[in-house]
């Protein structure tokens, strides 16, 4: 794993769409709908039993999308996601064991942090690209902006409670590379197969940068 690759992850799109699929047949169409709207990557969360199969399907059938695994909470999930074809990993928090497991996959990864000490602990491992989670509940734009002067090398992807309306204030911070959010892929749009809505929500994020 090169830390440069993890940092590059923050520059692919102003928004990393955080996607929850309930059935595996939602996976390929939702990835295609996001790509159609100009969003070239997907964070598929490991929160449903079909998530690893969904990653496999997108990796096989939607090569234009960079597919990653989110909600990586154990070393085993890091390995399983990599084996399923995930091209990056995102975790909501970071223990030394989980950090080591994500690094061992060789994939770029965004470990979750929510405090100065957590960010320092990740920084001590030589890793500078992080998720800031849960962003709104952990102090939001004001907190993250306060970190820029004390942790100038760290680049964050704040996620959690962010919307199209609030994304610009995060993206205006020097230490933010992109934001994450689930608003591009509402559960009801996936359930009803409203892929045009997903494409429209994705396209709306292009104006963010
Ligand atoms: C995540 O896993 O990063 C969050 O659940 C996404 O947060 P949101 O649903 O508030 O966008």
Q: Explain this structure to me?
A:
- The protein is α/β, with parallel strands linked by helices.
- The protein has a single domain, classed as TIM Barrel (Alpha-Beta Barrel), CATH 3.20.20.
- 42% of the residues lie in helices and 16% in strands.
- It binds 3-phosphoglyceric acid.
Shape: globular
Assign the CATH architecture: Alpha-Beta Barrel
What is the succession of H and E elements?
HEHEHEHEHEEHEHEHEHH
Strand order of the largest sheet: 5-4-3-2-1-9
Number of strands: 9
Helical amount among residues, as a percent range? Answer: 40-55%
CATH third-tier fold name: TIM Barrel
Discrete helix count: 10
Ligand list:
3-phosphoglyceric acid
Mean pLDDT: 96
For the sheet with most strands, the description reads: 6 strands, parallel
User: Would you state the CATH class?
Assistant: Alpha Beta
Strand content: 15-25%
Uncertain segments are none
Tell me the structural class. Answer: alpha/beta
Number of domains: 1
SSE arrangement:
Blueprint: H1 3-9, E1 15-19, H2 27-36, E2 41-45, H3 51-61, E3 66-70, H4 75-84, E4 88-90, H5 96-104, E5 109-110, E6 112-113, H6 116-123, E7 129-132, H7 140-150, E8 155-158, H8 167-171, E9 179-181, H9 187-192, H10 195-204
Parallel strand pairs: 1-2, 1-9, 2-3, 3-4, 4-5, 6-7, 7-8
Helix pairs in contact: 2-10, 4-5
Bound molecules: 3-phosphoglyceric acid.
3-phosphoglyceric acid (3PG) binds at residues 18, 45, 70-71, 133, 159-162, 180-183.
Key phrases:
six-stranded parallel sheet; globular; 10 helices; single chain; TIM Barrel; 209 residues; alpha/beta; binds 3-phosphoglyceric acid; three-stranded parallel sheet
